[in-house]
Amino acid sequence: MRVFFSLRPSQVVQQALWELQASLSQAAGRPVPAENFHMTLSFLGEVSGNVIDALIHRAETVHHPQFQLRLDEIGFFARPAILFVGPSSSPQRLTSLARTIRRLAYEAGVASRNSKFVPHVTLYRQAKFTATHLQPNILWRVTHFELTESILSANGSRYQTIAEFPLIPKK
């Protein structure tokens, strides 16, 4: 299985992301389907069923607080031509969660395949970015993280939740 840990938005946030994507149609790329919107915490690649079990077991031990994430900046990765939205500054709780996830994956015998954590949600692939004056302001209450399978097909990737892990609510 090809897997990664991710944050998946609520339907309200997913709708806001879709509306932002539609307003950026000049990107002239391949739009990511709304059901595929996510923020990758750690991409792990191909792993076996035994490793999946170990990842789930370790992820169940994560005690991390919920947090608010503000997606307020449009960005572009020239290689591989991805237009995205992300936070202008990454909340400490987000970077801490990503570090925790990478550590637990390493303890399960899997090294993260991302070199550096750059929080973002991909809106377009194969994009031709032109400057925009849009200033998004999408608030996302992060309440859980997921272990997600990436299923590749001729029509692109489809993401399926393997397991969901709650974050601790604020008191």
* Quantity of strands, as a count: 10
> Number of DSSP helices?
3
Mean pLDDT comes to 92
Largest sheet: 4 strands, antiparallel
Share in helix: 10-25%
Task: Write up what this structure looks like.
With 171 residues, the protein is an alpha+beta fold. Helices cover 23% and strands 36% of the residues. It has 3 helices and 10 strands, in the order E-H-E-E-H-E-E-E-H-E-E-E-E. The strands form 3 sheets. It has a 4-stranded antiparallel β-sheet with strand order 3-1-9-10, with helices on one face. Strands 2-7-6-5 form a 4-stranded antiparallel β-sheet, covered by helices on one side. Strand 5 and strand 6 (82-86) form a beta hairpin. The longest helix is centred in the middle third of the chain and has 16 residues, at 92-107. The mean pLDDT is 92.
How is the topology of this model organized?
Layout: E1 2-7, H1 11-23, E2 30-31, E3 39-46, H2 49-59, E4 67-71, E5 73-77, E6 82-86, H3 92-107, E7 121-125, E8 138-142, E9 144-153, E10 156-166
Antiparallel strand pairs: 1-3, 1-9, 2-7, 4-8, 5-6, 6-7, 9-10
Summarize the structure.
The chain is an alpha+beta fold and 171 residues long. Helix content is 23%, strand content 36%.
Write a concise keyword list for the protein shown above.
alpha+beta; 171 residues; 3 helices; single chain; 23% helix; 4-stranded antiparallel beta sheet
